[in-house]
UniProtKB/TrEMBL annotation:
<dbReference type="Pfam" id="PF04542">
    <property type="entry name" value="Sigma70_r2"/>
</dbReference>
<keyword id="KW-0804">Transcription</keyword>
<dbReference type="InterPro" id="IPR007627">
    <property type="entry name" value="RNA_pol_sigma70_r2"/>
</dbReference>
<feature type="domain" description="RNA polymerase sigma-70 region 2">
    <location>
        <begin position="29"/>
        <end position="94"/>
    </location>
</feature>
<comment type="similarity">
    <text>Belongs to the sigma-70 factor family. ECF subfamily.</text>
</comment>
<dbReference type="InterPro" id="IPR039425">
    <property type="entry name" value="RNA_pol_sigma-70-like"/>
</dbReference>
<dbReference type="InterPro" id="IPR013324">
    <property type="entry name" value="RNA_pol_sigma_r3/r4-like"/>
</dbReference>
<keyword id="KW-0731">Sigma factor</keyword>
<dbReference type="InterPro" id="IPR013325">
    <property type="entry name" value="RNA_pol_sigma_r2"/>
</dbReference>
<dbReference type="InterPro" id="IPR036388">
    <property type="entry name" value="WH-like_DNA-bd_sf"/>
</dbReference>
<keyword id="KW-0805">Transcription regulation</keyword>
<dbReference type="InterPro" id="IPR014284">
    <property type="entry name" value="RNA_pol_sigma-70_dom"/>
</dbReference>
<protein>
    <submittedName>
        <fullName>Sigma-70 family RNA polymerase sigma factor</fullName>
    </submittedName>
</protein>
Length: 193
């Protein structure tokens, strides 16, 4: 993405193109956000087919209602993630409520716990994919490759202080996944599920 196309300008242009009914705009939006949408939906629902359905629903909604996005409220990416989260949680509640009605042996409290866990996991995924690459790289080395901050610094070619700073900031961002209305979460993303 070039500097002149960086959000929010790109977001406003995309919304205008969608409002004019440009199918190519929907294709570009899909190419940019489909993996985010599918990943979040899958994280909430734990079902590939259901995630595919949510992905279709999200892009259909964006196509049919481009005016629902307000660039003043935040980036298009966040709005799409919020929409995905809302639709996936609605689907989860619907399917789990139907299972409860059929006597699957759970309670409404179990359902709410499952929804909260899925929401936190989806927010954490969103935070990780949205954080700057240097923070994500440091967390990847420390968590997945079991490097300490000294090894992380050497692998990244930065000072030990910088590696500690990146790890601390990355972990602080991830910790907000549990917070309602967390900074770093899309607007409305941490709110009522």
């Amino acid at each position: 993405m070039t500097k002149k196309d960086a959000p929010p300008r790109w977001d406003r242009k995309m919304q205008q193109r969608l409002a004019r009914g440009e199918a190519a705009a929907l294709g570009e939006l899909y190419d940019r956000f489909a993996s985010l949408v599918h990943g979040l939906a899958h994280r909430v629902l734990g079902d590939e087919r259901a995630a595919d359905g949510i992905t279709r629903d999200v892009f259909a909604h964006v196509w049919e209602h481009p005016e629902a996005y307000d660039p003043q409220q935040g980036p298009l990416r966040s709005w799409v993630a919020t929409l995905t989260h809302r639709l996936a949680v609605q689907r989860l509640r619907t399917t789990e409520t139907a299972a409860l009605a059929q006597g699957s042996g759970g309670s409404t409290e179990d359902l709410e716990r499952k929804v909260r866990r899925a929401s936190v996991a989806a927010r954490a995924d969103y935070i990780v994919t949205s954080m700057p690459a240097p923070l994500r790289a440091a967390l990847d080395l420390a968590y997945f490759q079991r490097r300490d901050y000294r090894q992380t610094a050497a692998d990244l070619g930065v000072t030990e202080d910088e590696a500690r700073r990146r790890l601390r900031l990355g972990l602080q961002l991830l910790a907000t996944a549990h917070d309602v209305g967390a900074p770093g979460a899309p607007p409305g993303y941490g709110g009522a599920v």
